[in-house]
């Protein structure tokens, strides 16, 4: 039981990172009806920014400055590359975000180089005791920071003017425009928030193990998370990320013992297996909105 609980905590920690990335995907999708494939590049850029700034400003200030920097980059991307595409087919805009992802990663890889860069985090692989459990400090940090950010994000959407405007635009853009909501500002804010969250996630991805040019692949695990939780559900994004993290962690710990016939490294594909199972049972995700078409 002790080992199982430690495995679950590890999964919740990693799942918190997937949840932050999934929130970025969902925020942009709810505002624009486009899945932004630029999130992996923004995550990588955020981690690299932290690795450079941490030696100058200290780690915690570097995280904040990097998150704001990547939010600004995301705003610029939306204004220059995405805003002119308003009214174009969704598929076209999604392909453009793929191109943005490639361009940003190529630029960021130049700052990474061939060696692994450390983000300068204070946790590393240090462990702490929670009663009889021994867990890594970074997993607890991931859980705590994600909980705080999710709480603030939900409060923003529920209690602030801009948050209510984003909810209105997500529900019906034409009605929101008629009520004086600037849909363009909503688009920009959604990209800025997604960039901010991606940078925080990138920092956590690099804790202990550092970052390299292929680190961006980790962000792809947020895709199963948003499908599991529901593409248009913020709460579903959080739940989906945590579910994916726990499932992956359980397979890493126990698959070799209980299901060796699945082969080595099955944990890597386990999030996508969960995604397929959920799609078969609930095509709109666990918390997604079922679309009703009238004919």
From TrEMBL:
Coiled coil spans: none
Protein family (similarity comment): Belongs to the binding-protein-dependent transport system permease family. LivHM subfamily.
Name listed for the protein in its UniProt record: Branched-chain amino acid transport system permease protein
UniProt keyword terms in alphabetical order: Amino-acid transport, Cell membrane, Membrane, Transmembrane, Transmembrane helix, Transport
Organism the protein comes from: Nonomuraea fuscirosea
GO cellular component: plasma membrane
CDD domains: TM_PBP1_LivH_like
Gene Ontology MF: a single term: transmembrane transporter activity
Biological process (GO), any one: amino acid transport
InterPro entries: ABC_transp_permease, BCAA_transport_permease
UniProt topology in membrane: Multi-pass membrane protein
One Pfam family here: BPD_transp_2
Residue spans crossing the bilayer: 12-29, 59-77, 89-112, 139-157, 177-205, 225-247, 259-281
Compartments it resides in: Cell membrane
